[in-house]
Amino acid sequence: MSYDYREMYLTEDKSGICQTEALGNAWTSLSKPACFAACMSDYPDTCRSMVYNEVKQTCIPGGTSFAKIDRIQTSIPKPNSSDTLFYAKMTVPACNTSNGFALYELCGTTVCLYLSTYATKFAAAVQKCRDMNSTLFIANTLARFSLFWDVSLNNLNQNTFLWLTDNITEGQFVWGNGEPLSETLNNYIWAPRQPNGFPNENCVQATHAYTPNFFGVHDYPCTYQSYFICERNM
Fold this sequence. Notes:
Helix content is 18%, strand content 27%. It is α+β, with helices and mostly antiparallel strands. The strands form five sheets. It has a six-stranded antiparallel β-sheet with strand order 1-2-8-5-6-4, covered by helices on one side. Strands 9-10-17-11 form a four-stranded antiparallel β-sheet, with helices on both faces.
């Protein structure tokens, strides 16, 4: 069941794949709408989800939800608990589907994407996205990274570039919009022993073709070829 509240649609995570991080302590709430209304009142800028227990009538306010990342130990709801996650979905504009773009949604995050059908070098991937009035995908939040991982694994299942490089200063990774890689993401997105800082490995990719079933991205030469994902603003 969904609830319309302030142009948001509160949606139950029936898949069990979504999680969030608590914004505060639990409180008692008599209903799901009341729980979310209190979350929005107490955390108007950051409340984007809630964890509710129907039997205990407990409510935990949550931030933006994301697909499960096992190495994040603080996320909720906890495995095998009777708590249920509800996330807010915003009403989004239409996706311009020219050039093969389409809508993709995961745990409340919705984006308009083009998935490449071929591999190319990093610079060519950036230019191809620009030519289609879009940008190479930037996964600068947990929600956007988990969506990137899901799409690159389950839709492409290929080595896939992100727009994340350390071209300017070795070891200091920066997104394509100029935003530095946050400490939170730096702790969670890398594969074991990555980034290893080998010479000329200044780009970043998911290596699904090389290391299937292993979570995390690798630093990688920009001159090697990989698949890529473009995002078009909506």
